[in-house]
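Aim 2 progress update. The chain analyzed this quarter is reproduced below.
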Amino acid sequence: MTTDTEEPTLTIDELAARAGVTVRTVRFYGTRGLLPPPVIGARRVGHYRREHLARLALIEELQHQGMTLAAIERYLRQLPPDLTAHELAVHRAVVSSWAPDAAETLSREELERRAGRSLDEGDLDRLVAMDVVERAGDAYRVDLGQLRLGVELLDVPLSQEAILAARKVLLEHSRAAAHELSQLLRDEVSERDARHVRSLSAHMQPLVVQGLLTTFQRSLKQELRLWLDDSQADAAP
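Predicted structure tokens:
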């Protein structure tokens, strides 16, 4: 039980259900150090937080990329131990971007399992508007690379119009950056064997995505800091 100011917690059964794995899997990951231990509360009951759920989602994405358990352990050991659920979701988005575009047709039940939560009609309408989900009769065509992000946006206290406008801005600028970067790669390989182009692209994509993510995060923090400073200055007597 929590108060209005406390972060909701999950039992191990609730965590497993939200993540779409078994309780045995959660315990196994815990023994291997892939998941931090829960907070032990009354009656020796373990309480898990959003960070545990986000870490399970990251593990699932790494598995989808074909990484072995040993490789996943090495990857997670390189991450700071105190990452927030949001930061873990960002890492998952980066990992997801390494793979080719992936879309699957899912039932409503499977869609909710992949989303890690129940979805009402309003939620589905918003996911459709964000081009994350496409209705296909009684099923749903789902962009798996964007699903987690779309679900996270369902809880953002912004209007759908503002979210779609933000998405448009990101798409326009990311396409412009992608065009300029691809031109740089073309110039770089123009004097080399064309067979190297595919190899260069495969090696560069994760690095470029991580670079774009890092620079964008820093720029956004600077903008928010300036916005906060301006707001405090306006509020000062």
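The chain has ten helices and five strands. The first helix runs from residue 12 to 19. These observations will guide the mutagenesis experiments scheduled for the next reporting period.
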